[in-house]
Structure formats: C-alpha cells, structure tokens
Amino acid sequence: MSKEKRKPGRPRSVEADNAIVEATLDLLDQGGVEAVKIEEVARRAGVARTTVYRRFPSRSDLVLGACEDVVSRYLSVPDTGAVRSDVVELLTTLIHALTRTRARHVLPNLLALGTADPKLEAATRVVWERRRDAMVEVLRRGARRGELPADADFGLLADLLHGPLYYRLLVSGAPIGRGLAEEIADAMLPVRRPAGA
Amino acid sequence: MSKEKRKPGRPRSVEADNAIVEATLDLLDQGGVEAVKIEEVARRAGVARTTVYRRFPSRSDLVLGACEDVVSRYLSVPDTGAVRSDVVELLTTLIHALTRTRARHVLPNLLALGTADPKLEAATRVVWERRRDAMVEVLRRGARRGELPADADFGLLADLLHGPLYYRLLVSGAPIGRGLAEEIADAMLPVRRPAGA
Amino acid sequence: MSKEKRKPGRPRSVEADNAIVEATLDLLDQGGVEAVKIEEVARRAGVARTTVYRRFPSRSDLVLGACEDVVSRYLSVPDTGAVRSDVVELLTTLIHALTRTRARHVLPNLLALGTADPKLEAATRVVWERRRDAMVEVLRRGARRGELPADADFGLLADLLHGPLYYRLLVSGAPIGRGLAEEIADAMLPVRRPAGA
Amino acid sequence: MSKEKRKPGRPRSVEADNAIVEATLDLLDQGGVEAVKIEEVARRAGVARTTVYRRFPSRSDLVLGACEDVVSRYLSVPDTGAVRSDVVELLTTLIHALTRTRARHVLPNLLALGTADPKLEAATRVVWERRRDAMVEVLRRGARRGELPADADFGLLADLLHGPLYYRLLVSGAPIGRGLAEEIADAMLPVRRPAGA
DNA sequence: TATTAATCGAGACGGTACGTCAAGTCTTCTA
DNA sequence: TAGAAGACTTGACGTACCGTCTCGATTAATA
Q1: Which of C88, C92, C195 is nearest to C146 (CA)?
Q2: A35-47 burial, b for 16+ CB within 10 Å, e for fewer?
Q3: d(Cα B91, Cα B134) in Å, to the nearest integer?
Q4: pLDDT of B24 above 50
Q5: Does D176 or B123 have the greater pLDDT score?
Q6: Residue C163 Cβ under 7 A from any strand E atom
Q7: Is the pLDDT of residue A197 over 50?
Q8: Quick check: B92 pLDDT over 80?
Q9: Which of D60, D115, D186 to mutate: most C Cβ within 10 Å?
Q10: Residue D13: which nucleotide is closest by CA–C1'?
Q11: Distance between CA atoms of residues D84 and C10, nearest Å
C-alpha cells in the first residue's frame, strides 16, 4: 500500500533542502527580510541559485517556507484537568516558540511581508490562529467544568492572555522570562471568580 | 531676536517636504517597506530624486522620518481623577493612533525594519515606550489613590492592557472596535481589587 | 559482407535521428544559429535533451551534422563535351543547392559559425571547395579541347563564375532566377575567345 | 548660430561610446556573434552593463552599431575618365574595406545575424547596396562614353565584378591580394568591346 | 527465459548570461 | 545654493539554457 510511487528523474537533494532553509533563517534573523537575498542564500547553502528557485518560486515563498517549521512547532491542546495549568502550558509552549534562537526576528519580518502580500498574510495568520483556537478551547473546557463563568468573553480573554507576549516580543522588546506564563495566568484567571462571589 | 537667520542660496521647498512624506506613507501603506522606492516617491511627490536624497540620506531615514509624525501623535497623560477613565482615555488614543488610515501597515513594517537596523529599532522603541510610560504613570497614580493595590506589578499590568491591541493589529487582524478600550479596562481593573478584599 | 554487426543493447531510434535534424534545420532557417537551442531542438523533436547530446556532443556538431546533407547534395562533374554546357550544368546544380527551401539561411549561419570554430570552418570549406574543384576541372577540359586559351587563369575564372551567385545569396539578396546560369556563362566564356582573335 | 541646444542632465560619456564599440568589434572578430556577450563587452569597455544597454537596447543593435563605421568607410564614386581605372579604384577600396583587420570576421557574422532579424538584414543590405550602386554608375558613365556597349546588363556586370571578392572572403577563404582588382577588371572589361568590334 | 547492455524519458544540479530594476553618486544646466 | 534632469556604477532580480548527472523504464541481442 505504501507504494512510494517514485517520480521519474533525478530526485531532489535533501541536504540542499535543509541548507536552504537554514541559510534563509540565518539571514532573516541577522538582517531582516531585506537581507534574504536569493543569491546569498544560495551562496551560504552551497547551492546554485537555480536550486533555490526550483523549490521556492519567489522570495515570499522562501521566507514563508523557511519559517513554517519554526513557528508551527510546539503546538498541542493540553488537558491537565485544570484551566490554570492548561493555560500555563499553552503560554509556555508559545514562549518557547517565540523565543527560539532565530524566531525573535522571524515574526516581525513575516508580519511585514504579509503587509504587501495577501497570500502570505493569510498563510501567516492561519499559523497563529491555531494557537488562539487552542487557548479558547482550553478556556471553554474550564467554563464547562465551572472554573470560569459560562458567559465570559473567551475570545477577549485569549487575546488578553496572548497579548503581553507579542507586545513584548514585537514592540517593547522587554525580556520574556520563564515565570511570565504563570504571572500572566495568575493575573488573569482569578479575575473571573469574583464575578460569581 | 527672532532674527530668522536666512541661509544663503535658494531655500528648501516646504511643499516638497510634505509631498515626499505623504508619498512615502502611501507607498508604505500600499506595498510595505519594499515598495518604498526613492524613484517612485520622487515621481509621486513631483520632485527630482536628488531632492529626496537631500532630505533623507538613505531609505531607512526616509521611512523612519515619514513615520515619525504618524506614530507620535495623540499622546498625553490624562488625569481624570479615576484610574478606569484614565486607562480608557489612554487606550482610546492608542486605538486612534493604531487604526489611522495608514498606520495599520506602517507599524509592522517599521518593526521589521528595526530588526535589521539597531538605530531604527531604538528610535522606534522610544516612540512606543512613551505610551507605556504614560500608562504606568496613570496606574501608579491610581494606586496612590488606593484604587489599585500598591504592590501590583504595574509593568505587567500595562502590558496586559496594551497587549490585546497590538495582538489584534499585528497578529490576528481581528477588528479593533470602539468599545474595546472599555472592555479591556473592565476585564483588567477590578482584578486587583479582590487582592485587597 | 553486409555483416550488419549489431551492437548489444537497445539500438538508437531512427525517428529521433530524423526529428532532431529536421528540428535543427527549421530553427536554423527561422532564427539563425542563435535560435538553435538544444532545449528547443529536443522539444520540437519530441525527444529528451540527453538524446540529442548522445548524437551530437556540441552545438557545432549538431548544426554541422544537420547541414551536411543539405549542402553536399547535387554535386557531380558533368561531361557534355562542351565547356559552356558543362559550366551551365554546374552552375545550375549550385543554384539548386543554394536555393533549396531552407538552404538560404543555412549558408550564412554556417559561415558565421566557422568564424568562431576553426574545425567547423574547415569542414564547411571542404564542402564548397569540391564545387570549385569541379568547375576548374571542367574549364581545364575545355582548354584541352581548345575551347579556352591554355594559359587562362582557371582559378580566377571559376571564382568569377561562382561569385555572383554567392554575392546575390549572401550580400545583396537579389533574386537568383533560372536563367542566371546561362547569363553568367554567356558573359564569361566568350571573353577568352577574342584573346585569340 | 551654432546654438548647440544642450539637453538637460549629464551628457553621455564619449569615451564609453568608443570603448563599447571597440570592445564589440574585438569580440566579434575573435569569437563571432556568439562571443559578443553584453557582460563581456561591458567588462572590456570598463563600463557598467546598464551603460551598454542605454546606448544599444539589444544585441543586434549593438553589433550593427559597432559594424556601421567599419563597413561604410572608404566609399566614393571615382571619376578618372576611364571605366577601367574607375572600376579598379572601386574594387580597390572595396578590398580595403573587406580586408581591414577585423572586417574578415565581421561581415559573415553580420550576414548571419540578418538571417534572424529582418530589420538588421535591411540595414546591412543598404550598406552594401551603396557600393553596388556606385559600380553601376561608373559602368553607365563608361557606356555613355562608348567604352561599353549601351545595352550591357550593368547589374549583372557589377555582380560579376564584386562576386569574386565576396566569394573569396566568405566562402573559399582564398587570399585577396593587391593585384586582384586589376585582374578582375582585365578579365571582365575587354569582354564587352568585341561586341562592338 | 532470464540476463545484460544500451537507449530513452524525465528532471535535478551547478553554472553563465540575459535583460530589468532600483539604489545611491555624479555632472550639467537653470531658477 | 536648490532643484530638475539624466548619466553613471553597483548589484540583485527572476528567466532561460547550458552541459552533466542520476534515475527508472524500455528494448533487443545473448546466455
């Protein structure tokens, strides 16, 4: 069944694949989108320019392709039985994703690229939306368990939980430490209890 | 006293100044940083290329210069006598600043540019920091009045208040409505009271 | 004797042979040497690029190979018993060779290629030299029969007879009609008689 | 009077003009049309690629432009009072033009280019036609003086006079010596006298 | 009938040159 | 001096072919 229908012709080099992505991420991190020059990517990857173009028809595709694995990792919907720990878990993995070596510069550049290229913008949004969806899901489950008021605005709450992280990463540049996930959860979650008090 | 020491030679054209900035903002909004081409700016401004270069030595300078007035407007530290209304006032002006016609695209592009150019990054941060400082100031004043616990983490609180706005603008693209400032304030401010209860 | 030593392995496709030559001639005729692109030849011949390379190691080889049958046809040394008719016969076959459907463009391109590739130049010259040799032979025979003065410069005479054809084909582009062979012969041959008069 | 209406902006560099033409001719002579690579022309001329493109929008234009002065020099309609010397004069200048250092390779390549580009073909033909027209004019004058029969086919005669030169240059590669002009004139001109004898 | 040896298609690979575009500098004339 | 106009160098863009290379699939003659 796993017939592995090999296509005719010489197969693509996997080393080239990796080298190209790595080179792209390095450049993106060091000098922003503008520094991602196909010529330089090829040079660093030790690959001909055409080899890059064969995989990624345009610079947008290259950047998005290279970012995809960086941003989409570390995502799962946890279910620890308690909202707080679920939320902390989600925020922690998000912090991981955002502060990985090269991701710090990847995100703003991706967002800026999206400004000019709607296709890219959509592709980028999808990635981040999945995280928000996960958060909303976790909050809903908490409400079903009675940990949160059933009529809470889960969407707004999710934005409030995520917001500070992106704010610090993108705008203020303030450090994003280990304890931040818990601080945010502590600041936000009890909030809703007094409403029932 | 106001001797207006006129420099010798032909004085610079003020219309040119404005036209250049406007053209730059338009392009930035329409196609991102990459679309800001000196030649096109000059063409739209009805000006020679040299005239642009005389004012802004490089493209970075041009972009930053053009953005400066957009981002720094609408800023003052309100003092209504109550935290909540002060906060709502600050958030509202921020929403104004962020959702102005062209700002939506200007911000991410500025942030991405900062990724590659530390000077630009610093210049950009300063602008946004002033807003956060204003928020922290307002919160402190509230604490002094007893409206907030004195030992609250005002920095984190400010980030929690600002975060959702940037998150929606930059990442999720969700609409930023008129009522949002109040929703955020309501969600966050009572939180601290129960700590003292 | 017709041992037909078949080599082992799959024999070469004859259709491919023909298709490649035809495609090459078409391109040569339509767009000159520069238009003979291996990739395009392969495409038109409905053949893989490697199949072309297997037959013709280089583009020069391809062009020369394709031209060879076009230019070398229609050659024989006539012997009608009279110089004039021999000459007319030779000129007529030359006109045939030069004005065949695609030959019109083949010759100049071949000559230009020879400019850059001495091997090709030599190969090309050989083909045309055979025609001149035939003409000289015919003239010598005429001299032996007393139709021409024995001390005539047969080489120059041959060039004078051939020259107008190539001149019209290559340089002036003037039409080369059916009667031209006779006109040339009439203009040149009587010349030598008055010398004896 | 000599108002020399200068156009605005920086004027084009004359050194660049010359260097480009020279580099083109060198390459054309050394390796044929295919060797005329814009990149290499620019390199040899010590000039940026764009500077070449500004003057000559395409390679055809470049080659033709560079050839124009080579081929059009040495042309005038002589009037010595005798056909023979007029013809010898014309043939001699043609020999000069054809055997100049680089012309040997320039001509065939120009002709081959014409094969693919009708505009170029026309431009090239014009240049050579002027020489033939001059020859025809000289012959007509001779006829008017009674040196040639009035009903001679001057066009064919001109082709017969020019043909051998081009034939040797382009096809046979035979040497084109100093005495050739007279040999050809002697071989062709007396021919017509006996008609009147 | 299986093996063997060549051909054929497809297509990836490292390259070179193309023609275009924009950046930033320089030169000239005019206001 | 500023400004307009435009030539200039530099360097990246994305495309098109080059000639070489791996592959799997044919195709015959041979073992």
Answers
A1: C195
A2: bbebeebbeebeb
A3: 11
A4: yes
A5: D176
A6: no
A7: no
A8: yes
A9: D115
A10: F7
A11: 68
Residue of B nearest to A27 (CA): B116
Greater model confidence, D138 or B9: D138
Optimal mutation site among B167, B169, B188, interface A, most CBs of chain A within 10 A: B167
- Please report the residues numbered 56 through 85 in chain A whose beta carbons come closer than 8 angstroms to any beta carbon of chain B: none
At A195, the pLDDT band (50, 70, 90 cuts) reads very low
Main-chain phi, psi angles of D122, to 5 degrees: -60, -50
Name the residue with tokens 């368990």.
A145
Query: Under 8 Å CB-to-CB from A168, ≥6 apart: which residues?
Result: A174, A175, A176, B159
pTM value is 0.83
Three-state secondary structure readout of B6-75: CCCCCCCCHHHHHHHHHHHHHHHHHHCHHHCCHHHHHHHHCCCHHHHHHHCCCHHHHHHHHHHHHHHCCC
- Asked whether residue C55, judged by its CB, lies under 7 Å from any atom of the DNA or RNA strand F, the reply is no
Q: Which residue is nearest to nucleotide E12 (CA to C1')?
A: A10
Name the phi and psi angles at C146, rounded to 5. 85, 5
Task: Assign A70 a pLDDT band (cuts: 50, 70, 90).
Answer: confident
Q: How far does the CA of C110 sit from the C1' of F17, in Å? A: 21
Query: Does residue C39 approach strand E to less than 7 Å at its CB?
Result: no
> D126 exposed, middle or buried (CB, 10 Å; 0-12, 13-18, 19+)?
exposed
- Structure confidence by residue, pLDDT tens digits, A110-129: 888 888 888 888 888 888 88
Please tell me whether any atom of strand E lies within 7 Å of the Cβ of A11: yes
pLDDT, tens digit (0-9, with 9 covering 90-100), for D5-22: 678 889 999 999 999 999
Q: What is the pLDDT of residue A56?
A: 96
| Residues 49-78 of chain C sitting with CB below 7 angstroms of strand E | 49-51, 54
Sign of the torsion angle spanned by Cα atoms B118, B124, B130, B132: negative
Window A52-111, strand F contacts by Cβ < 7 Å = 53, 57-59
Question: How large is the angle between the packed helices B59-72 and B103-116, nearest 10 degrees?
Answer: 130
Which of B174, B163, B168 is closest to B131 using CA atoms? B163
Contact: A187, B160; criterion CB under 8 Å:
yes
Which of the four pLDDT bands, split at 50, 70 and 90, describes residue A190?
low
Average of per-residue pLDDT across B49-69: 90
Confirm or reject contact between D194 and chain C (CB < 8 A): yes
Which of B87, B104, B111, B189 is the best substitution to test chain A (most A C-beta atoms within 10 A)?
A: B111
Residues of C (58-117) placing their beta carbon closer than 7 angstroms to any atom of strand F are: 58-59
pLDDT band at residue C73, thresholds of 50, 70 and 90?
low
State the average pLDDT for chain C: 87
- Model confidence pLDDT, tens digit, residues D44-67: 999 999 999 999 999 989 998 988
Are A171 and B126 spatial neighbours (Cβ–Cβ below 8 Å)? no
**pLDDT for B109-150, tens place per residue?**
888 888 888 888 888 888 788 889 999 999 999 999 989 888
D173 closest CA partner among B91, C197, C114, B88? C114
d(CA B187, CA D72): 88
Find, among C193, C143, C154, the residue nearest to D193 by Cα: C193
Q: Is C183 on the interface with D (CB under 8 A)?
A: yes
Question: What gap in Å lies between CA D69 and CA D72, rounded to an integer?
Answer: 5
